[in-house]
Amino acid sequence: MSMLSSRKPISSNNSDAVNENEPSIRSIIESGRREPKPRTNSTPGIWAMPLISAGLLWASFTPLDYGPLAWIALVPLMLLVRLRQPPRHLYKAVFLGGWLTMMVCLQWMRLGHIAMYPAWFALATYCALYFPLFVAASRLAVHQLRMPMVVAIPVVWVGLEFLRAHLMTGFAWYYLGHTQYYWTELIQISDVVGAYGVSFIVAMVAAAIAGILPDAVFLKCRLLPDQQSDQPATSPNGVSGDWQSVVVTSLVFAVVLTYGFIRRSQADFDSGPRVALVQGNFTSEVKHDPTLAAKIQRKHYWLTALATQHQPDIIIWPESMYRGAIMQVDPNLSDTQLKKVDPFVDPQHYRNSRVAEELNHLATKSNAHLMIGITAREAKPDGVANYNSVAFVKPEVGLIARYDKLHRVPFGEFVPFAEQIPALKRLTPISSTLGISKGEAISVFTVDEWRMAPIICFEDTVPHLVRKIVRSSSQAASDEMPGPLVDVLVNLTNDGWFHGSSELDQHLITSAFRAVECRTPLVRAVNTGISAFIDGDGVIVEPELFIDADTKRPENVSPEEPFGHTSMRDPKTGKWHRQLNAVLVKNVPLDSRRSLYVKYGDWFAFLCAMLTGVTIMVGIFISRREKRAAKAVTV
Q1: 90: nearest Cα among 137, 41, 57
Q2: Of 239-253, 305-319, 493-507, where does mean pLDDT reach its minimum?
Q3: How much of the chain exceeds pLDDT 90, in percent?
Q4: Whole-number CA gyration radius for the chain
Q5: pLDDT at 4
Q6: Pair type for strands 522-527 and 488-494
Q7: Residue 160 contacts residue 612 (beta carbons within 8 Å)
Q8: Which pLDDT does position 478 carry in this prediction?
Q9: Which residues in 16-26 are b (16+ Cβ under 10 Å) and which e?
Q10: 192 and 222 belong to one structural domain
Q11: pLDDT at 219
Q12: Strand, coil or helix: what is 574?
């Protein structure tokens, strides 16, 4: 017989008797079962907060470019992180806000080609998935692991930025830190931890702001249900206290800013090669019109002639602006075999040296080295490969080297998984015969005593690729001048796909962070613009000469006097000029400083990604254990 059944009834007169008014354990459990659970219904604020964040994030980036808004853009999302009980439809609302953010930020994709509309929608949807993942991971860190928000929020945000830069070929655009490109001292931390470090400090400040907001804000924003339990409805900034987190954040911010001032004071830029950037103005529809190839070629020859008058060491054309192609063929292939390998091209085109002769003539006549965006086609026994390339031409010598693009643009230059899923080919304007093959090696070109590494198109937006190019340059160095580092990064781009949209600005801003990360100046020759010189501090500097080739010289202006646009920017609006034919000339400011980011890479962002993954796994484990424990109590 059990102890419970052998007990005698307790007399009501016994002094140790339990008060009849006290509820029994069983009645407590029963009442707990009948107790209504805390309301988790959706409230208007649950939908409003992601939309507010969406608007603030969009305004922080181009075209509005109101960077200060980025410091508070994530605060509405962080209020949702603070809520102890996740309301119904929380993650649907957050996904919607993220999707709207990316749709409006990426709207320029639709301008490339009508076939890019599905790709625009698909990329925006993919990027939007990171927003609910950010909120979910942050909630696990704050509520399950009791991490302070000023730690959890920036770690998770940066960890997801790192993931987005690598997953599915990577998309390293629209980082939170990119909004601060104009605050030169702040972005200097990039030479230690990459642009991710700037994103970290912006997210940390936003977390500190969100953490000190009182519950009254939640009520005004209609984030709380009408009926509450005895538990607080929100979680504070962290276990250490709200204002302590503000102090810690302020100290971190001060250290980052102080580092920036110190690093800038160490800059001692030497005069480097004199570079002329040729900027044609041709939309991609025009560029791909074979009837206009001669016109495009003549325009670039004319712009090159304008550049030659100022005696540059090197003249750079944008991506794919030379309308011929470098044709190479395996010498062991006969014409009959070549015809079978490539039935679309006459074998004599492969044997013709016309393009190489024209490039040599242009370099010799200009008395300058040339980097020219060009296509290359190679016929091999196993098939044909098309490359997006840079031709390097030396005066009196001719074509001596070529760089083939390493990082191709999905759906713009190749279709991932096209063999497995043929329907994906409909998401791209390229045909199966015009897809771009991947290059095999980094290239470094030597111009006198300077070493210059080319990168093509969106390669300058990929931080780990540019870092690899700079770090690996000693292995890719030419035999005539070995050395450990690249003196100048050269980006050749065709942004004519996007018709002067905000893509041009965002592309330029993103590339500026590569110069800081690697402490290497970067020059950009861009079809339709925005061509630019960027120093090792990430400052987009004015050229010594900005030649406006579209404005007709007035009769009363001497040939020596400037006319038309004489600056990269409109003096009234401060906006960069675009969609014009121009030539920019400047001696590149060389940077002798070294970069820890080049040496150690993305250790910081990788650590954040690992911590985010551990947080998610441990947080889910704890959450499930608590649910099982609560269920066991009620049984």
Answers
A1: 41
A2: 239-253
A3: 62
A4: 30
A5: 39
A6: parallel
A7: yes
A8: 42
A9: eeeeeeeeeee
A10: yes
A11: 85
A12: coil
